[in-house]
Specification:
Layout lengths: L7 E2 L2 E9 L4 E7 L4 E8 L1 H4 L2 H15 L9 E7 L2 E7 L4 E2 H5 L6 H19 L15 E2 L6
Antiparallel strand pairs: 1-2, 2-3, 3-4, 4-6, 5-6, 7-8
């Protein structure tokens, strides 16, 4: 189920799609209470009826809520409305690793070393929590506007 601009999930107003993957769809949204941009990940309707997928989505929320790491986005809220389960996360502006790798950079080798170091640190941070993959998928990692994860 694709959400359209203007759709409301609780106090969050969908603005535009950001991406989709194996576990959900992610949208840019506006938190109308705190007047900030957020990212909302929804569990698609065809997964909501699958108890194992729903349980995995809930486990992801619980795991992320217990993490505090500079390379992992912050979970702000969880909710369910009209059969749509969603997670509300920090919206990080930047490029995915896939997008960044498509553009040649003069510092590619240095970036590769820094990226591998940061992703391995992030992966080590995940190790005690088996429900999430290690390391995170390349399309889930965002490089912010100053080149940091």
């Amino acid at each position: 189920m694709a959400l359209t601009s203007g759709t409301k999930l609780g106090p969050y107003e969908i603005q535009s799609p950001l991406g989709a993957g194996g576990m959900g769809e992610v949208y840019r949204a506006r938190d109308t209470r705190l007047e900030r941009s957020v990212a909302i990940k929804i569990l698609p309707a065809h997964f909501s009826s699958d108890p194992l997928r729903k349980q995995r989505f809930e486990r992801e929320a619980k795991t992320i809520s217990n993490l505090n790491h500079p390379h992992i986005c912050v979970l702000h809220d969880v909710g369910s409305q009209d059969g749509i389960d969603y997670l509300v996360m920090e919206c990080v502006e930047g490029e995915t690793l896939v997008e960044r790798e498509l553009t040649p950079r003069n510092f590619r080798i240095q970036f590769q070393v820094e990226r591998d170091h940061d992703l391995s640190n992030c992966a080590l941070y995940f190790r005690p929590s088996p429900p999430l993959p290690c390391p995170p998928p390349r399309c889930s990692a965002i490089i912010d506007q100053v080149g940091s994860f």
